[in-house]
Amino acid sequence: MTDTRGASADDEDASPADLPDFLAIQIPRWSATGQLSRTRRVVVLAVCCLALLMIGIDNTIVNVALPSIGTDLHASVSGLQWTVSAYTIVLAAFMLLAGSIGDRFGRRATFQAGLALFTLGSWLCSLATSLDWLIAFRVVQALGGSMLNPVAASIIAVTFSGKAERARAMGIWSGVFGLSMALGPVVGGFLTDTVGWRGVFWVNIPVGLAGVVLAAILIPESRVFHPRKLDPVGQALVIIVLGALTYAIIQGPSAGWTSPRIAGLLVLVVVALTTLVAYESRRAQPLIDPRFFRSAPFSGAVMVGIASYTALGGFLFLATLYLQDVQGLTPIQAGLRVLPTAGGMLICSPLAGRIMARAGPRIPLLLAGAGMTLGCAAVARSAGGPHAGYLALAYEVFGIGAGMANPVITTVAVSGMPLAQVGVATGISSACRQVGQALGVAVAGSILTGSLHADSMHGVTLAGFATATHGAWWLLSGCGYLVVILAFVTTSGWAARSAARAAQAFTT
């Protein structure tokens, strides 16, 4: 049951392909704002896309500023890892919860709260006087950001009631992510060069405040009368698993992998994960339903999301440190050097959707895995300081692969799923991308510091950096190769049959 604003017949025919990439809840099949004028609907879409653009840019803009942050706040490599990973872990951990909060308390109110909290976190980050405070304020940012993507996607879904209209709106929504990837490195480099690293957080403040005001004026409120129940125990267990695992990976090289602290954390991860599976299996409305993983396409999509975003997170982290701390480029120069990667993602994301519509997901997944494998392997095989043209080509190939992967993950995840479960399935697959990005930064940084036998980039030469990151680049290349394997597994006849059996489990 919903509020009193009526239903749209078109929504009864909504298909999984119409649903948003970042949706973390089950979309009710009705349109709370179906009577809005076309101009008003477009403006609502623009406000929601503005939030996604801000979140997406913040993800890559901070990477370019990391060397400057490290110098100003005297941060180690592991400290820089936490600057990125603390944000992505919290984003992943609370993304599923945010959709349920929007259903329960109102989507517009939740969206505004997320914008306000993200803006506050950005302002606090710009005032940070130490790395510890910066990491703490990044957590505040992420709490706000976790409310934006899933809730904004829900707002779009109920605003655009027709199938074709919704599909176009979601296409624009997905394209904004690619645009944010392209803008982030350049904008971050420009701001860091001109006003300093604090400028990458200042830029969010006017955008966030404008979003809060525009949402209050332009976005009607919507909610459901019987939202999904909250799952605080499941939520706590997810946070424990993600936090303990990431901490162990980042601190393992310095503390020692066999130290009581690291070994205890790894044991905690296993215990918490086992408890999570057992607990969620007994709940009527679990945060993460274990039955999803009976579907080979869904499980494969989760693995593709983790693998591809592990490669992306590690790639951006290592490339930024190499270009600025080792090659000595300015932030704007480094941003321009990484632009081929963002350009490849921007171009290939919509291209992957067209290929998938005609030939299915296998070809885009194969191209995705091949691109990421070859791009990382090309960097791994280079010794000392490779030529700028060589790096640009390797970065472009990697960007093509990463761009091909992104739109396919959700489509494969919902393959064969009943419509009522599509929103939750896409939410889990989207959260796994953030998990992958956090793990990529954690693993790549750990290999770097372990190979250098130090937690500092001071005095590292071109040859020394190439040697220290050799294993990391090959590991990231292996993530791409895993995507190639999963391309065959998740699109096989056996996988389709497993998805049908999983869908049947939700109706019995």
Residue stretches low in confidence (pLDDT < 50, at least 5 long) are: 1-34
According to CATH, the fold-level topology of the largest domain is Growth Hormone, Chain: A
- Shape by Cα distribution: globular
Helix coverage percent = over 70%
CATH-scheme architecture of the largest domain: Up-down Bundle
Explained architecture:
- The chain is 77% helix and 0% strand.
- The chain is mostly helical and 508 residues long.
- The protein is globular.
Q: What characteristics describe this protein?
A:
single chain; 508 residues; mainly alpha; 0% strand; globular; disordered N terminus
SSE order and pairing:
Elements: H1 38-72, H2 77-105, H3 107-127, H4 131-146, H5 149-159, H6 163-194, H7 199-202, H8 204-218, H9 232-255, H10 260-281, H11 296-326, H12 331-359, H13 362-381, H14 388-413, H15 419-452, H16 462-489, H17 493-505
